[in-house]
Give the backbone structure.
Amino acid sequence: MSSVVTAGPAYCSPPGRLHTILLAGSVPLFLGALLNDIAYYQSYQIQWSNFASWLLAGAELFCGLALLFALIKLVRAQRKGGYPLTYFLLLLATFVLGLINCFQHAKDAWAVMPAGLVLSAIVFLLSCLAAWVGLTPRAGGVQ
């Protein structure tokens, strides 16, 4: 005699539509800022740095709102550790380093480099990792 045990719903609900849009929307904005920093590093045209600043502002807005959704998800989670905490901390690190990058880009002309380029690369990688962790479906329970 065999019996099959199936648990209830997954221990972690997937992000909602708006949360997904905000989380996924910050990645190309951070990528655009990185590419603009590379262009500025190679061409010395200040407009690349100005455009990177605007892209960073948009990315910070998206990331900040996604961070708010992640905080709500963390507070509502039954298990405070593990996935919800990792996801929240990744987004928090992305937001804080992105804010530092915004302050770096507020400097005048070439003073942005090379720290702005390095920060843009780090923030882009963190945003990719946060999006990967946040958008990966999680299933729990006994199958």
